[in-house]
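Q: What structure does this chain adopt?
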Amino acid sequence: MGGRWVMRIAFAAPTALAAVLAEIGGVRSRKTPNDELLDRVSSISWSEGGVDWIGELFPPLTAGIAVLIGWTGPLGLAMVGAAIGGLLLQQMSQIMVQRRFRIALRIPLLAAVGLNPLFPYNATENLGAFLGIAFFGVGIANAARFLLWGHTRGGFTAGILFMLAVLSDRAAILYVLSALIAAPFLSESRRFGARARWANVVVLAYPSAAAIGSVVALHTIFLGSPVPPQVERAIIGAGGVPASVGISGTTEGYLLIATVILAWAASLVLRRPSGILVSSLIFVAVEVGLVIGLIPPNSVGNTYLLLVLMMIALVPTAKTRTTGVLLGVLGIVLNAVAWITAFANPISRDWLMAIVEGASQLVGGG
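A:
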């Protein structure tokens, strides 16, 4: 237990340092998702007799964290994100050890997740999305254990983690739907017929469906609408297109497509063509989330992190040396794509410049 916590702290420390340096670096040209979250919860009037505040506390896990530690400001949320990041990296490392990944493969794959600016940016500036991605990423790894190798406990764990993702990020419902659509094609029980496949889907879907049903019922009873007001505002204000970079001819769009193609390549290397379906559905889910406003336009790296975590989740215990080498190379290439994306995107680039400015002030004594 002690060793695990040392790993978690070690993994969290660089992200926490980046958050402190970005805070010292100061001025940024645009609000981050965390800034918007804090603005939303700080505007809630708790003293009034109405129940309108219920609609602003969605997703409940992220909003609840912001309410509890909102007095600490953006840096407080960033520290929570850094801690979650440490837990996520330790969990992914543990999964790779359990599946007997060689160290030469663990390093590039873990680096593809956490050793690039997209990971700490989301951890420190977009807590809701990062929580959703973290829960979904570990959930898809457990779902793979359940669907591919018949590990029953993995199925129940995955279902709970998918539920937590949905309660953390309003776009996570799209990610979970992607996984549920792909589940029958991943399942080893397909040889036993449709009933077994759909039983697997029910195991994965039930906790999320129950949580969503509870939220819908609560909002319908108290607010007269099944959709939380801030979700309605986001959808109405999305305007459709500007946020969707993946289908435009920009550098970011090409890099996003490259990430998807690399995820496809990993599926082929693993001889899991169903992985192509999963990665394609995740890509579509993120694009839909951007277009309809469930994902804020000031987000970056969501697709990348989801696809890398999905790739690790599908790697089996038994691997040939050639497969390991090819996956390691793909991990290195993916990491390079993440770095280029971080500098190509003005949002993450601003954040990186704030870190550089903060480090300069710290070293120069102000």
